[in-house]
């Protein structure tokens, strides 16, 4: 039995992905016997239509000095954040104040450095925070919470925009998050965040979106219901293609109610697609089991014909696929990746070796599991010289 992280009411898990290591817990051989595991189960609160994982590691276990994710590792994401920052500028004027939550290596905030505004980023992972500081981007090495804003007098009730990307779904204490926003946002301020979208996960059966960092998979209905009870209105939503399908949510304090017609239409669509109810979860569970069987069949068939398989992109998401489907080095020889913090280590739980992506070009793999499927365009462009590749994914 578990409890909804917002309503605190009892919830019955509808699915288990089994014992799971940390999604970003890439490790050395000497640490195999110390590996941390937890039970990855999912529940759904029908009251607020909220898809959530139950047990999860503490945020400090994940976001620390070894966090191996750098926004700037993807050219596409750099471009995305540039465009996103241009869009955000419409909410700003001279002397405005802006806060980014989970500002990572400063890829987004970099676009505001030259403007006449006051800005600050919150980034709890020390190694990525250090990169932002080297770039002279104002960043606080802390979690965004009520506890960590005591010396931000300049920003309290005066912040025009609070923005986040792929971060709100990481925050287990959403109530504290909303209280922190409330303490900082000006009366006409805007809260904007974009997160992996539950509807896209259902559509693609991209269950690899479910891992320790993604405590919630939001829908428009859930965001609207959660924030409404804290006097915020969801005034607009904009679908995004990032992270395999995300949604940008735009919220305002209730008294600034705008025309919510567009949001209403999206909510009706979610109702039709059963994204707002447990029924959708149960269909998704069936689809995950189908995807798991199909994937194992595909991989074993290739191996039976004496061909080799490698992986491309040692993503955090790949940890869920590999452990849920029980796929180890007997099926996938290695995974190629660009991140220096991962190269030379092994994948969490299943212990597949991670190699430098430059070796991929020299290798003769024809069957490549594209774990970084959400970066498909960028990777295929980079590896376009390679012909006859059988790119494999678990997506249906
Ligand atoms: P993520 O999905 O957890 O953000 O991880 C993406 C991983 O994919 C990261 O380890 C870097 C890797 N990657 C490549 O190896 N090549 C690429 O071209 C891109 C865009 C990402």
How do you describe this structure in short?
The protein is of the alpha/beta class.
Structure description:
With 396 residues, the protein is of the alpha/beta class. Helices cover 29% and strands 23% of the residues. The protein is built from eleven helices and 18 strands. Strands 8-7-6-9-10-13-12 form a seven-stranded mixed beta sheet. The longest helix has 27 residues, at 278-304. The mean pLDDT is 95. Bound molecules: thymidine-5'-phosphate. Residues 69, 73-74, 313-317, 337-339, 342, 357, 372, 375, 378-379, 382 line the site of thymidine-5'-phosphate.
Strand content: 15-25%
> What is the global morphology?
globular
What is the average per-residue confidence, as pLDDT, rounded to a whole number?
A: 95
What is the number of helices?
11
Element-by-element helix/strand order: EEEEEHHEEHEEHEHEHEEHHEHEEHEHE
Radius of gyration: 21 Å
- The largest sheet has its strands arranged as 8-7-6-9-10-13-12
Unreliable runs: none
Which structural class matches the secondary elements? alpha/beta
How far is the first residue's CA from the last residue's CA? Answer: 31 Å
Bound molecules: thymidine-5'-phosphate
Number of beta strands? 18
Q: Give the proportion of residues in helices.
A: 25-40%
Q: Report the biggest beta sheet as strand number plus sense, adding barrel if it closes.
A: 7 strands, mixed
């Amino acid at each position: 039995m578990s409890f909804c992280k917002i309503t605190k009411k009892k919830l019955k898990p509808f699915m288990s992905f089994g014992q799971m290591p940390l999604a970003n817990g890439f490790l050395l051989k000497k640490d195999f016997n110390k590996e941390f595991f937890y039970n990855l189960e999912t529940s759904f609160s029908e009251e607020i239509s909220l898809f959530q994982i139950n047990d999860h590691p503490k945020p400090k276990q994940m976001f620390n000095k070894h966090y191996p994710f750098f926004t700037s590792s993807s050219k596409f994401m750099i471009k995305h954040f540039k465009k996103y920052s241009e869009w955000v500028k419409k909410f700003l004027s001279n002397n405005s104040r802006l806060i980014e939550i989970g500002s990572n290596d400063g890829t987004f905030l970099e676009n505001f450095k030259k403007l006449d505004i006051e800005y600050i980023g919150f980034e709890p992972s020390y190694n990525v925070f250090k990169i932002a500081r080297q770039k002279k981007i104002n960043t606080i090495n802390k979690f965004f919470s009520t506890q960590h804003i005591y010396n931000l007098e300049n920003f309290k009730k005066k912040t025009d925009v609070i923005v986040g990307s792929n971060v709100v779904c990481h925050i287990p204490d959403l109530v504290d998050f909303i209280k922190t926003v409330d303490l900082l946002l000006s009366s006409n301020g805007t809260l904007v965040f974009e997160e992996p979208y539950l509807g896209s996960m259902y559509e693609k059966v991209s269950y690899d979106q479910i891992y320790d960092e993604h405590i919630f998979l939001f829908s428009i209905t859930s965001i609207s219901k959660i924030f409404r009870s804290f006097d915020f209105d969801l005034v607009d939503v904009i679908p995004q293609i990032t992270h395999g399908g995300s949604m940008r949510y735009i919220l305002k304090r209730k008294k600034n109610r705008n025309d919510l017609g567009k949001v209403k239409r999206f909510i009706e669509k979610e109702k039709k697609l059963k994204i707002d109810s447990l029924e959708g979860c149960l269909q998704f569970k069936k689809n995950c089991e189908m995807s798991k069987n199909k994937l194992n069949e595909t991989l074993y068939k290739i191996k039976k014909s004496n061909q080799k398989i490698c992986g491309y992109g040692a993503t955090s998401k790949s940890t869920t696929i590999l452990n849920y489907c029980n796929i180890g080095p007997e099926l996938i020889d290695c995974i190629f990746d660009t991140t220096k913090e991962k190269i030379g280590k092994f994948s969490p739980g299943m212990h597949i070796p991670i190699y430098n992506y430059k070796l991929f070009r020299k290798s003769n793999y024809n069957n490549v599991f594209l774990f970084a499927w959400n970066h498909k365009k960028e990777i295929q462009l980079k590896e376009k010289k390679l012909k006859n590749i059988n790119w494999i994914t678990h997506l249906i």
